[in-house]
Amino acid sequence: MIKFLFTCCVLILVNLPVSAAAQVNQDLWNDLLAEHVMSSDGGQSTYVDYAGMQLDQDKLEQYLGQLSAVTRVEFEGFSDNQQLAFLINAYNAFRGPAGKTVKFSH
């Protein structure tokens, strides 16, 4: 289950409705993930260096602000998969500043 959720988060397989897409720039989150998600154990697992994300605090705060700007009406207009992806990304982004490294095994 964790592998599935993390894969959803990393791949951003969702196309948000136009109104929300204009507010949430997934490129910011994708850039942070590309910088701070690393492979280990010969590609058998990945980990997120949340402490490293603190170095990109401006980019993270900008992304968090965009997530926070999505209204309940916009969120309710998302498909079930879009809502799930949004919540997973929001959870991981808001948790980031905690300065923890979490390892996900494949």
Description:
α1 (2-11) crosses α7, α3 (26-36) packs antiparallel against α5 (57-69) and α5 (57-69) runs antiparallel to α7 (80-95). Strands 1-2-3 form a three-stranded antiparallel β-sheet. The chain is globular and about 40 Å long. Mean pLDDT is 76; it is low at 1-8 and 10-15. The longest helix is centred in the C-terminal third of the chain and has 16 residues, at 80-95. By secondary structure, it is of the alpha+beta class. The chain has helices at 2-11, 18-23, 26-36, 50-53, 57-69, 72-76, 80-95, and strands at 37-40, 45-49, 101-105. The protein has seven helices and three strands; from the N terminus they run αααββααααβ. The chain is 61% helix and 13% strand. The chain has one domain (2-105).
